[in-house]
């Protein structure tokens, strides 16, 4: 064999071995003890669950920023005064219910306890009005409750559904078939009729009572949260279009200054006679239904390590900083696993790379350590970054995203040496291969691809921050160890984190990142899987 060729092969092998040894050397700085040291702070009661935009979340951002500064990572964002900052600030916008009540004779009935509201309306100050009973509130060519009835400037009370005779036929259709005046959205048609005739507010008497009504009110309260969900763009509402208060027969009777039995007899008389009410029932009511605008100020934390000869290409390593805050009963949801485990993993990976750089072995490509917020509200921090990247996405080679790697799920209760990988092969076959090789060489955990299956009903690929990179064509890996019994509950505490199990996963992310930033060729986007 040619001596020069043999020498060259030996030199290449030695260089590769040294590079591998370097990666292993700096990975050893990632320890269970250090992960715990950070997490007891990030997931402490003093941070009150790190709800998005809360003082606790901002304390977490301050802690993370201070750590990055300590290890020499540069602030990557720009503050309003044009100085560099670790904080990429952005706003979330929210419209929500303020004070809402129905008041009769000085007694207030509580929103989402005694009644619920269909649709949106905005009554910022208490408003009183005369009320008139309009039967079923129907106006149809074959039947109307509004003959010779003036409701202009008055509120109206009406029964839910539509009248039918003793033989089971509905008065409107003349058959056993219901019409648009019955069903879950029939309130809209009734409310439009009343509003077109000049009515002020609409009260619909529900057919449900007792526990059935309580259950309905609870369900409606949950459904109504969609009207209060935060968004990245300012919310525009038309809250004075079509809305109705849904009240029980008991509350309606109070409004009409009568008894429940007498009120229900009026309903029965319509059904029996096939004719609208022959006499008017009136009363008085006051309502308040306040819609509030809120602006939530929050921020991603972005710390940058500049590369050497390939510094214009950037690897993002991400995790979300926030959690869900304090429950209604006052219990703190510390989010030690979700996603305190990911947050502290970034700190340890940053420390390992910083030590390498201090020894003259820094990365060839640049690395952005990105702790996002708004994940629990709708992946907003990563969405904001993808729309306002600090470094061009065309130069972003991949995103390695860590979310919940500190516990085990039921499927792996007897084997903790695993991690779910999601998305690794969806955009880049090379990224998947690099991940597999890093695991085989350094960690030897089971790489579980159960949730990578596009048919998996959990759809985790779309449920964490990596997705906002993937949808922009940036290859991703999502590291995850599954949902456990304390998911989004107060029991997600530091004491339950398996740091000895977590540390090798963090090392796997580090070794994958090391290869991505130091290899000669940038990985290609060569696939487009679901």
Automatic annotation (TrEMBL):
InterPro entries annotated for this entry?
A: EF_Hand_1_Ca_BS, M28_fam, Peptidase_M28
| Chain ranges of the Peptidase M28 domain | 300-499
Entries under SUPFAM superfamilies matching the protein: Zn-dependent exopeptidases
GO terms, biological process: proteolysis
- Renumbered to this chain, the signal peptide range is 1-19
UniProt keyword terms in alphabetical order: Signal
List the GO molecular function terms: metalloexopeptidase activity
UniProt name for this protein: M28 family peptidase
Query: Which species is this record about?
Result: Dyadobacter chenwenxiniae
